[in-house]
Amino acid sequence: MADTRLIRRRRGPVTLVLRVAVVVYLFLLVAWPVSLVFDRAFRASGPHEGGVGAFLERLGDPAAVYAFNLTLTVALYAVIANTVFGVGISLLLVRYRFVGRRVLSVLVDLPLSVSPVVVGLALVLAYSSTTGWLGGTLQSVGFQVIFSTPGLVLATAFVSLPLVVREVVPVLEEIGTEAEQAARSLGANGRQVFWRITLPSIKWALVYGVVLTTARSLGEFGAVKIVSSGAEFRGETATLFVHNHYQNFDEPAAYAVAMVLVLVSVVALAVVTYVRPREERA
Amino acid sequence: MSATDTVARPKPPRQPRQLRAADRLGPASGLGLGVLLLWFSVLVLLPLSAVVVTATEGGWSTFVDVVSQRDTRAALLLTVGEALLVALVNAVVGTVIAWVLVRDDFRGKRLLEIVIDIPFALPTIVAGLVLVSLYGPRSPIGVDVVGTRTGIFLALLFVTLPFVVRTVQPVLEELDGEVEEAAASLGASQATILRRIILPSLVPAITAGTSLAFARAISEFGSLVLIAGNRAGETEVASVRILKFIERDQFESAAVVAFILLLVSALVIVALDLLSRKVAVRG
Amino acid sequence: MSIEVRGVTKSYGDFVALDDVSVSIPTGRLTALLGPSGGGKSTLLRIIAGLETADGGQVEIEGTDATALPPQRRNVGFVFQHYAAFKHMSVEKNVAFGLEIRKRPKAEVKRRVHELLELVHLEQFAKRLPSQLSGGQRQRMALARALAVEPSVLLLDEPFGALDAKVRKELRDWLRRLHDEVHVTTVFVTHDQEEALEVADEIVVINQGRIEQIGSPEDLYDEPANDFVMGFLGEVTTLDHHLVRPHDIQVRTTPADGGVAGTVARVLRVGFEVRIFVRPEGAADDGTDVVVTMTRTFARSLGLEVGTRVWLSPEQGARRVPVVGAPTVPGDQPVDAVKV
Question: What is the pTM of this model?
Answer without folding.
Answer: 0.80
